[in-house]
Amino acid sequence: MCCVGITTKHKRCGNVIAKKNFEAAKEIVRQLKVQLLDKYQGYRLILSLARLTLCPRWHPDQAGTISTRWFYENDWNFTSDRETKGRGDSRRPRRTTEEDSASEIRKAAEKARREEALRQAQREKSERASEAERQRSQREADARQKAAEAERERLRRERAEKADEDRRRRRQEESDRLKREEEARKRNQQSENMSWKDVWDRYEKARGKLVNSSRQPSNREIETLYFWPTRAGLYASCNEAAVKEFFAHRPSNLDRKALRRQVGYWHPDCTTRLFAHAQDQKAVQRMLTMVTQVITGVMESYT
């Protein structure tokens, strides 16, 4: 047999009552069926029955409510006080009258109503607290969702700005490249119209200015100044064939000793510090090594 109490969810409790309470409840039910009782004695037995069939931990406060409901809802065969007194029933105290029984019943019913009202107020309070907790959780979830959406929007804007910046940078790099190529084309055209004497004079002047300068040239100056040993004099035109052609048209006064000075000038161990601001250090190192090797070969074949 399970507990007859009502949970906060308005359902019957499912806890099993103790075996000794079950046996005592069976005895009370037997007394209610076979014994001739007045209303007061019957209510007291019904109240005891309710206490025995309730959880002693969770629902002992519902004994008055349940016993009152059982008393009024069931058709008990209780006698009045006069009938019991006429039959000489000595189990009921003499001081108890029918009015006292009715008064006790009314008090128990009033107590049961107060207890039910208190439980209802507690249930309403619990429901209000649950609703407040639900609303708070919903607000927190909405705030988290808004924060996540704001973060996604921020990342989207950052990606868009980065993409725009990359496009602008690529366009600027392309524009600079085309500008440099146009300048190199014009310079090459000008160099083609110059004599080798003028080319060497320009090379010596630019080289002396670079060596005597107290600062290191920028990457832009490395690419645009005419101190490279080629007819065009530019970094972009510096290759093995151009360097060989340049020194093949050297001045007549450029003897072996002067060529050795040229090797010392272009040797990577002596010249690397001048090109510290170059964007591609490895390419500059390869260029210096190539120029040194070409001049060394020219010097070794000098007669």
Write the layout of secondary structure elements.
Elements: H1 19-34, H2 39-52, H3 63-73, H4 81-86, H5 98-192, H6 196-212, H7 219-224, H8 240-248, H9 256-266, H10 268-271, H11 281-300
Helix pairs in contact: 1-2, 2-3, 2-5, 3-5, 8-11, 9-11
Structure description:
The protein has helices at 19-34, 39-52, 63-73, 81-86, 98-192, 196-212, 219-224, 240-248, 256-266, 268-271, 281-300. It is mainly α. The longest helix has 95 residues, at 98-192. 17% of the residues are buried.
Record keyword descriptors for this entry.
mainly alpha, 2 domains, rod-shaped
Gist of the model:
Helices cover 69% and strands 0% of the residues. By secondary structure, it is an all-alpha fold. The model is unreliable at 82-96 (pLDDT under 50).
Helix content: 55-70%
What portion of the residues fall into strands of 2 or more residues?
under 5%
SS-derived structural category: mainly alpha
Shape: rod-shaped
Number of strands: 0
Distance between the termini: 126 Å
SSE arrangement, N to C: HHHHHHHHHHH
Q: How many domain regions?
A: 2
Helices, by number, come to: 11
Mean pLDDT: 80
Main beta sheet: strand number and arrangement?
none
